[in-house]
């Protein structure tokens, strides 16, 4: 990852420190895991449902809201530049691309699913479990059937 880009390790670490309740997600997480071709112009962060999107002077942020169980399932802690950062797992990231397809585009979600499967970023069982936990099975079913046939 490039140092000055919105998805660089140091930028992600800075956002993690400045938005302590945030979870790195969507396009930034895809880029972190090297899934797909997206090159985000801002850092995507999930914040609690009752929070307002943070405004940082030198880093562009795109915020989505995660509430309740969505703040816990498929979220892991990583260490970047001595900062503890929360980030969605590859499986959760792909599922969230479908959950937020109206914000990022269905084409991005499909590409993430195809690339995640191709790179073996998750198993089909992990994907089905996450899809069911995130209650998006009906939306994702035709795409999963097309890829796993």
Task: Walk me through what this model shows.
This protein has 149 residues and is an alpha+beta fold. The protein has one domain (9-148). Helix content is 44%, strand content 17%. It has seven helices and five strands, in the order αβαββββααααα. A three-stranded mixed β-sheet has the order 1-2-3. A two-stranded antiparallel ribbon has the order 4-5. The mean pLDDT is 91.
Class inferred from helices and paired strands: alpha+beta
Note the beta-strand portion: 15-25%
Note the run of SSEs as H and E: HEHEEEEHHHHH
What is the CA–CA distance across the termini? 34 Å
Q: Please give the order of strands in the largest beta sheet.
A: 1-2-3
What integer is the average pLDDT? 91
What percentage of residues falls in helices of 4 or more residues?
A: 40-55%
Rg to the nearest angstrom? Answer: 15 Å
The number of helical elements comes to 7
Shape: globular
Q: How many E strands?
A: 5
Which helices and strands appear, and what pairs or packs with what?
Elements: H1 9-18, E1 23-24, H2 26-32, E2 43-48, E3 61-66, E4 75-80, E5 83-88, H3 90-99, H4 101-104, H5 106-118, H6 124-133, H7 137-148
Parallel strand pairs: 2-3
Antiparallel strand pairs: 1-2, 4-5
Can you tag this structure with a few keywords?
three-stranded mixed β-sheet; alpha+beta; two-stranded antiparallel sheet; 149 residues; globular
In short:
It is built from 7 helices and 5 strands. It is an alpha+beta fold.
């Amino acid at each position: 990852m490039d140092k000055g880009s919105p998805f660089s390790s140091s930028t992600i670490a800075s956002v993690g420190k400045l938005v302590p309740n945030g979870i790195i997600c969507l396009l930034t997480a895809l880029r972190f895991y090297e899934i797909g071709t997206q090159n985000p112009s801002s850092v995507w962060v999930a914040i609690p449902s009752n929070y307002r999107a943070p405004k940082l002077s030198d880093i562009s942020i795109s915020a989505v809201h995660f509430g309740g169980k969505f703040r816990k399932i498929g979220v892991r802690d990583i260490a970047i530049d001595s900062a503890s950062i929360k980030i969605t797992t590859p499986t959760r990231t792909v599922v969230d691309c479908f959950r937020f397809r109206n914000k990022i585009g269905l084409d991005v979600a499909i590409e993430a699913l195809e690339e995640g499967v191709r790179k073996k970023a998750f198993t089909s069982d992990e994907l089905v479990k996450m899809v069911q936990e995130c209650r998006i099975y009906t939306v994702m079913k035709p795409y999963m059937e097309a890829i796993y046939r």
